[in-house]
Design brief:
150 residues; alpha+beta; 2 helices; globular
Length: 150
């Protein structure tokens, strides 16, 4: 009976988070201090490249520690090489910042890549987070290349 409940819970979770990397793949290790905690790679509605639609495509970066982390110089990159570099972002302890694709005003909880085109492929992609020294921090993959590691 437990296996049936787990399958049912997984199905509900998949429905609750459509077009997100809810089933993402990390390296199999425990979460690092800072990690990619969520991705919405397919914004709801038509892909009309409106700023609203672009900003519905996002990546969440979470700090699981009690101490703030300076993300200045850290990068978030897709498999095609589109790279966002964090500027003047301090991620407080036990908090999350959402990185939107479109244009907007940065706050403590939301930052914007200021792009006019989508970054994350709907069918497959990998979001990779690196620190200011270029060291790998975390990645999340979805779609047909999901098991591929960088």
């Amino acid at each position: 009976m437990t296996a049936v409940a787990a399958v049912a819970a997984a199905a509900v979770g998949a429905v609750a988070l459509p077009a997100t990397a809810a089933d993402h793949h990390h390296s199999g290790r425990a979460h690092a201090a800072v990690y990619i905690s969520g991705v919405r790679y397919d914004s709801p509605g038509p892909d009309d490249r409106s700023n609203w639609s672009l900003n519905q495509e996002w990546v969440d970066i979470t700090n699981s520690t009690r101490r703030a982390v300076n993300l200045d110089g850290w990068t978030l990159r897709d498999a095609d090489g589109h790279t966002f570099t964090f500027r003047h972002v301090r991620l407080d302890g036990r908090s999350t910042v959402r990185v939107h694709t479109g244009v907007g005003r940065d706050t403590r909880t939301d930052v914007f890549q200021d792009r006019r085109a989508y970054v994350w492929n709907n069918d497959h992609d990998t979001a990779t987070l690196r620190n200011d020294r270029g060291r790998f921090i975390d990645d999340v993959s979805w779609g047909r290349h999901r098991g591929h590691r960088r």
